[in-house]
Amino acid sequence: MADVTVYGFPISTFVNIVRLVLTHKNVAFDFCDLEPDMGSPGHLALHPFNRVPILDHAGFRLYETSAIALYVDEAFTGPSLQPEDLRQRATMHRWISAVNSYYYPYFSFHLSHERLIYPALGIAPDEKVVAHALPRIAVALDVMERELEHGRDFLVGDQLTLADIFVLPTMTSLSLTPEGQGMLKSRPRIGQWRMRMEALPAVIKVCATVAPHIGKPVEHARNWVETHRPRY
Length: 232
Fold this sequence. Notes:
By secondary structure, the protein is α+β, with helices and mostly antiparallel strands. The chain has 10 helices and 4 strands, in the order E-H-E-H-E-E-H-H-H-H-H-H-H-H. Strands 2-1-3-4 form a 4-stranded mixed beta sheet, covered by helices on one side.
């Protein structure tokens, strides 16, 4: 039994960021699927804001993905996911903030929930939510396409960093929607970046664990219609 446990549900964008970091660092961990217990007292004891992921490292519990990712990168040996250069490190943190503020909210919270999560539960999508998201997604994609003009392999130079790992799961969820597929076709640099990312051993390994759950109903998401869905 590993002394690291990740709590979450399998298709969570932020859970998979944590799993990617741990896997890239070659850290053995157990995964505890909270899907049946989301919102329960047991879950809230782990995360008082009713979210995932949660990391337990030998009794030290931590929630919030950014905090977990930084902790894992510094607590364990293996290839570093943070640049040594101060300005590059600041750029990495800018990407992490952008994922939390702009990419995830519109790519996943708005679009992929309406196109993937709710339909799998027999809940009709809210087209107003989709319409609100699409121009904001276009802006975010244009920013990323422009940032990749430097010709290097990753978002912050030639080194894989937490910036890339934070962006990838959100970009993957976008790519599973019809609108996302169309928008991504006109951004070739993003396409090349995705190919490089999807060839990484850690990404291949984590994707294999997620694949069986894609398209399956996320039962606790029924409540999201009342608690999570944006209103326009």
